[in-house]
Automatic annotation (TrEMBL), chains A, B:
Protein name (database record): Response regulator transcription factor
The keyword Transmembrane appears for this protein: no
Domain of life: Bacteria
Residues that bear 4-aspartylphosphate: D57
Ranges for domain HTH luxR-type: 145-210
DNA sequence: TTAAAAAAGGGGAAAATAGCCCTTTTAATA
DNA sequence: TATTAAAAGGGCTATTTTCCCCTTTTTTAA
């Protein structure tokens, strides 16, 4: 019986190695490739012998899971990949699924369910857990209007960055060569767009989404 | 040859199971006990047959690694335990080592080094990695700077955390069962202490100094 | 035990922030 | 070119934040 081949792309060596042991203990699977980031994964790929499933961690140095998924979509659109992450933020999940991930597993999943997930992806082409589905439903409720993700314009981003400092809006207006009233417009429109109710909310959003470095 | 026994205490089932596979593949070690939190670990312990090493995750529901370590120190002071965590915050490391952990491993450690660490703990009684040592040195530097200034009291920290949300001060006062005027006192005193001029400054300070997780 | 300090609370006012509805200017494109 | 959408700006008001100076209560330490 031919075993299905799995590639493990994860920078947490201990986890990756351990996961490999586990997968190799399954009857129908074995790990044929291991890389610590997307870049190394791509370099190690043999175009003529692609793995049946790629297990892709999201947070990795150099080339992360999202970038790797983008590359896969571009270069090997038929490649099956499952995102495997600690990160259950809606935004990340959506990004990965949009890019064609066949499933999104949280790292605290039970080993038996993990094996089921592999089976499902091989047999049915996808695996979506309850938890991920619920996360998505939450997201739909929260922001059904911006279904292509929140795109901030350059000028808005500039304002957001300044709003994340101790400057008053008046000072920000001077800095941006705009009237305080215009700044007030940016503020209102961002409050609406980002679903926050105070400047603190802007700051938290800015930091969470890496518009400002700490 | 007798194998050394290892207990794995970790709520991330997939990781725990995988790690078990890995350890069982080592010549000198095998996993004899697995629990998903400290409570279950303690219940499962056989007083007459303690494991040679306990691998203890920090972040777990119900009873976390620190609490479990406290219990071990109290009840089995000779028990060897290694903290195993994603969390490389100085505070946590220090807490665990003070409680008698024989080592502190980050989950992205290399499998070979992991085996070495187990060997060291068995043979020498401890294992400290470069990275952890450096973290501790960093902390010593920081503490020295803090000495003539910034150490926040519990109640101040509680306030700071709430100030880093979209709550108004009035709402924070209600949350902390204090008068808004008292909250105003905390605010003024923190502004002074942290050298900031607006609530935004508090938020930035709180995030920079990891009083709140993002 | 008593003095000092820290924590809790208050009055009042100026500045900043937030919410709503509106007009003018500029840019985009059909 | 005419139409439209977006960007910039204004007026007004309510709430929140910030600041300064003050009293009472509780803890801490000499």
């Amino acid at each position: 019986m031919k075993k299905y081949s799995i590639a493990v792309v994860d920078d947490h060596s201990l986890f990756a190695k351990s996961l490999t042991s586990l997968i190799d203990s399954f009857n129908e699977y074995h790990v044929t490739l291991h890389a610590t980031n997307g870049q190394k994964f791509i370099e190690a790929l043999n175009e003529n012998d692609m793995p049946d499933i790629v297990l892709l961690d999201i947070n990795m140095p150099i080339m992360n899971g999202i970038e790797t998924m983008e590359w896969l979509k571009e270069n090997h659109p038929a490649q099956k990949a499952i995102a495997l992450s600690m990160d259950d933020s809606e935004e990340t999940i959506i990004k990965m699924l949009r890019l064609g991930a066949k499933g999104y597993l949280l790292k605290d999943i039970h080993p038996e369910i993990f094996e089921n997930a592999l089976n499902d992806v091989i047999e049915k082409g996808f695996y979506y857990s309850d938890r991920i589905t619920n996360k998505l439903l939450d997201t739909i409720d929260k922001k059904q209007n911006d279904d292509h993700g929140i795109q901030l314009k350059d000028r808005e981003i500039e304002f957001l960055k300044l709003a994340c400092t101790e400057m008053t809006y008046k000072e920000i207006a001077a800095e941006m060569f705009l009237s305080p009233k215009t700044i007030d417009g940016y503020r209102e429109s961002l409050f609406e767009k980002l679903d926050v109710r105070s400047r603190i909310g802007l700051v938290l959003y800015g930091i969470k989404n890496k518009y400002i470095e700490m």
